[in-house]
Amino acid sequence: MTDEQAENDQDKPDFAAAWADIGSSHKSINMAITETLRAAILSGKFKTGERLTEVGLAKAFDVSRNPVREALRVLEVEGLVEINPRKGARVALLTVDEVQEIIELRAELEGMSAKYAARRCSDEVRVNLQHLLNEGNRADATNDVAVLAELNNTFHNQIAVAGKNRFLVGFMKALNEKTQWIFANRPEPNMAGNWKEHAAILEAVIAADDELASVLAKRHVEDIGKEIARATEEQER
To answer: Which of 7, 33, 131, 213 has the fewest CB atoms in 10 Å of its CB?
Structure first.
């Protein structure tokens, strides 16, 4: 792809919704652009290694290049963007070591979260988890991928609530951006497969089997980590 093509293609992500209320907000243009680009990177709209041209982004945001340049510098400090004086900016590349370190910690925390949920789940929360399980199983039976994607995200919040440990939730939130970024750059996820693993964890939590819930939750994250590590290794070659 030529530089001109890259610049013309840089408006690929749809920034319209995030950008629409800038005039009525109290955010500076620099801050708004930084937050919008950060969200686009963390959600996988921009993939690791993808070029971020000032001209293309300025065109997408309908601003001058200066606030775009400042936003890219902020994201460079955060480790989400790499800037080369000759080649310009690109989304930072994840290394295999980074993926493995983050995943192994996330796996331990998810295992603890599921264990505490199984031990401490109240009757009211157990009813909510059963409702989530039933809804997911129905979506799985009809291959409703959109609903499964939503429920797969809801699953983690429900388990965290059931576990009743604010400090553990805080540690997991601290890792959330990095894990979100890693997961967004994984190969196309198998929503049905993800749900089946989540369903097994929910069943263990509802049955108050804390050891099984912990093992299944930890294994689930580790398996995703192996999948992403393989893709990252191929990217590094």
So the answer is: 131
Same domain, 82 and 144: no
Q: In angstroms, what CA-CA distances link 179 with 102, 129, 155, 203?
A: 7, 24, 16, 25
Residue 122 identity: S
In total, how many domains does the chain have?
2
Whether 112 has a pLDDT exceeding 60, the answer reads: yes
Do residues 128 and 186 both lie within one domain? yes
Print the domain residue range for 192: 96-236
User: Which backbone phi and psi does 36 adopt, to 5 degrees?
Assistant: -70, -40
φ, ψ (nearest 5 deg) of residue 12:
-55, -55
β-strands 81-84, 51-52 pairing: unpaired
Mean pLDDT value of segment 122-126: 93
> For residue 224, what is the domain's CATH number?
1.20.120.530
- The burial of 42, by beta-carbon neighbours within 10 Å (0-12 exposed, 13-18 middle, 19 or more buried), is given as buried
Amino acid making up residue 142: T
Beta-carbon count within 10 A of 88 CB: 16
Among 59, 91, 123, the domain-final residue is 91
The residue with tokens 């093992």 is 215
